[in-house]
Amino acid sequence: MKFLIGNSHGSRVLASNPVRSSCPVCGNEGTSVGVMTVEHLVTDRDLVRGEKYRTCMNEDCDVVYFDSDNGSTLTKNQVIVPIWFKRGADPKYACYCSQVTEAQVIEAVEHGARTVSEVNAATGAMKNSNCKKNNPLGVCCHKIIQEVLDRQELTKSPINPFTKQ
């Protein structure tokens, strides 16, 4: 959308509508995601009406995707997979392409896996990669698996209040 705006010198200039980068429902800053990802994961492709989609990462907001230009939103019930970063996701996938859950990653860690490579070997994560279509963020799940590893490492490291850290 284009519109005329005035400036301090009395002349008018043609300007573009500013890109909205926050969720229209909760105001959370959005993360860019490709339209191919959105089209692949929605229940009906006719719902996809734009090109500049963002993901709302707020776990309590029902909006998964919103369009930066036209303000349209796509909610959890309009997406065909549970969204790992939304409250109540079941199952909570760490790797969508191989359908490996966060619980399976945790189990691999409990059985000795310490790196993403070791988790992948134990669970089969990242073997069937087509992340642009399968992961709701349109990116590789390596970072998600690493975050689970980091959280597990923190829970395994008891802090002794009597020793200096």
UniProtKB/TrEMBL annotation:
Superkingdom, natural source: Bacteria
Every BFD-like [2Fe-2S]-binding domain range: 95-150
Domain CopZ zinc binding: from-to ranges: 21-79
Pfam family, one: zf_CopZ
Name this protein carries in UniProt: BFD-like (2Fe-2S) protein
UniProt organism field: Youngiibacter fragilis 232.1
